[in-house]
Amino acid sequence: MKLFKKIPNPREIRQKLGLNQLEFWNKVGVTQSGGSRYESGREIPKAVRELVRLVHIDRIDLTKIKRDDLIVAAMLKAQHPDLYKSLKKSAKLSA
What we know:
Elements: H1 10-17, H2 21-26, H3 32-39, H4 46-57, H5 67-79, H6 81-94
Helix pairs in contact: 5-6
Protein name: RsaL-like HTH domain-containing protein
Domain RsaL-like HTH: 11-55
InterPro entries: Cro/C1-type_HTH, HTH_RsaL-like, Lambda_DNA-bd_dom_sf
């Protein structure tokens, strides 16, 4: 997975998900009018592209992620790398 990969057609992603512009763009903190400009060809900033990927492609609900979760994950990765890799592999298999 390459972070900040160019998203060639956000409109196509939105339409495949069956969302209107307001629903799609609101989930990543972009106004409907801003999203409309991106769908019309305006360059999408890297941060917005990454949010679109996380929310709409990887299907991650950002409202459920807490700072403590990220801290625990980082600690697990640093202190128990084998367990972290095993858990990550299991998570991919169950997804």
